[in-house]
Amino acid sequence: MGKGAGIGGRAAVGAPKPKVPKRDVSPVELAQHNKKDDAWISWAGRVYDVSNWRDHPGGDVIFSHAGRDATDVFAAFHSRSAYDLMDDFYVGDLKGAEEGKYAAFEKELRTLKGQMQREGLFNASRLYTLYKFSSTVAFAALSVWLVLNYECFAVHMVAAVSLAFFFQQCGWLAHDYLHHQVFHWRFANDLVGCLVGNVFQGFSVSWWKNKHNTHHSIPNLHESTDGAHDGDPDIDTMPLLAWSKYFLKQAPPNAWYLKYQSVLFLPLLCFARLAWMQQSFSFVFRMDMGWGKGAFDGKFSLGLLEHAGLLLHYTWYAALLLCMPLTHALAFTAVSEAMGGLLIGIAFGVGHNGMALYDHANPPPFGVLQISTTRNVHDNGFTGWFMGGLHYQIEHHLFPTMPRNNLAEAAVRVKALCKKHDVPYHATGLIEGNIEVMKALDDVVE
User: Fold this and answer.
1) Which of 256, 254, 259, 312 is nearest to 281 (CA)?
2) pLDDT at residue 15 in the model
3) How far apart are CA 407 and CA 8, in angstroms?
4) pLDDT per residue as tens digits for the range 80-124
């Protein structure tokens, strides 16, 4: 359940079955174990007790399916070696579960994944990976070169813009490594992810995994009760933005500004990088996270490298600012941070915001959940680069360990499968998608 997470995963069919079944578990009994301190999940007809497993390498995502079937979400994230660990958590066999409306679709989706694995679509291209890494670092190199070789304010602002694009592209690069798309050895992915995330960006690997893996598991899912923080963390943006009537009900009495949230959406994204840096720093140094979330009390898979990486980020950034006059440095900081947040925000926000949302107790099955809550963006060459391959967000959510340069091939097959089973599949332009996002914000407060 995480230790061997890596490229590919495998379908539940053919996985080793515990030798001695302990007892039968009904769906009703399974559903009663739905809290972090009392968490049972089912996988391929078997039930496992993962209560209080705070050291799970993937973070709190292990609790996102407490009381429910986790067969497909488990297969999406884990590799072959993870299955060897499962016997230690085994409780019994699930009996009496009924097939749902989309059982045939989900079965064909698993078959499609297996087919693409055999075709090598889950294998990374070393040449492509090197190209993406070097082209991303080139933005930082250009920024540093401009700052060191020119004293002109305008040139320093160009350097700030270049650094903003560096921050944005680092987001996609870290995303590749931390989804274990590149190396088969999980630790190697995490190390490079720490370099790109902590050192380059100022974003903690553990903070990101804890948040992002949970988002992947339950996209656009409301929390079970107010303040439980067991829903999709990416839509829990109160009190700044309300993505549904559910969240609007939680608004403080003086939140008059929510009436204008569609207008405020893009300006707020300018502060996104600063907010994520604050959350990362608080997470790693065990400070109160704010917004009622308290301090993190779990373990870091990379130990003190998390702390060192963040400190190195602030060190190199401060050193660069010291190479400029104070007024230039202030303007450089404002432009690079605000633009960096805006660039990554408009690219990732279009993926899910304004799509279907579900109550915590009644989500559809894995494949339908991922597809119905996700929006693709048409590929026109630019969008692939600008969005780091996440213009194929649907396919990424279905197959998170598939390298980004293979998602286009997967999209052709997934779209055909959706058409066959009458599962809605939504794709639009980048601008049109962001308009849909802001229209959704308007609809919430009408």
Assistant:
1) 312
2) 45
3) 13
4) 777 777 888 898 999 888 888 899 999 999 999 999 999 999 999
> What token pair was written down for 352?
């899910």
Distance CA 113, CA 125 (A): 19
Q: How far apart are CA 262 and CA 444, in angstroms?
A: 10
- Find, among 387, 361, 379, 393, the residue nearest to 429 by Cα: 379
Which amino acid belongs to residue 278? Q
**47: helix, strand or coil:** strand
DSSP 48: E
Q: How many helices (H) and strands (E) does the chain have?
A: 17, 7
The whole-number average pLDDT for the span 43-60 is 82
Q: How many CB atoms lie within 10 A of CB 373?
A: 26
Name the residue among 193, 194, 163 with its Cα closest to residue 178: 193
C-alpha 298/C-alpha 291 separation (Å) is: 19
**Residue 237 burial by Cβ neighbours in a 10 Å radius (0-12, 13-18, 19+):** middle
- Buried b / exposed e over 111-132, threshold 16 CB at 10 Å, is ebbbebbeeebbebeeeebeeb
Q: List the one residue out of 376, 406, 413 whose CA is nearest residue 391.
A: 376
Retrieve residue 252's tokens.
């403080």
pTM: 0.89
d(CA 210, CA 233): 10
Angle at alpha carbon of residue 158, lines to 154 and 164, rounded to 5°: 140
**Average pLDDT score, the chain:** 90
- For residue 292, give every residue at least 6 positions away whose Cβ sits within 8 Å of its Cβ, in sequence order, or none: 227, 229
Note the pLDDT of residue 11. 38
Do residues 201 and 314 make contact, with C-beta atoms less than 8 angstroms apart? no
- The per-residue pLDDT for range 395-427, each reduced to its tens digit, is 999 999 999 999 999 999 999 999 999 999 999
Residue 186 contacts residue 201 (beta carbons within 8 Å): no
One-letter amino acid at 392 equals Y
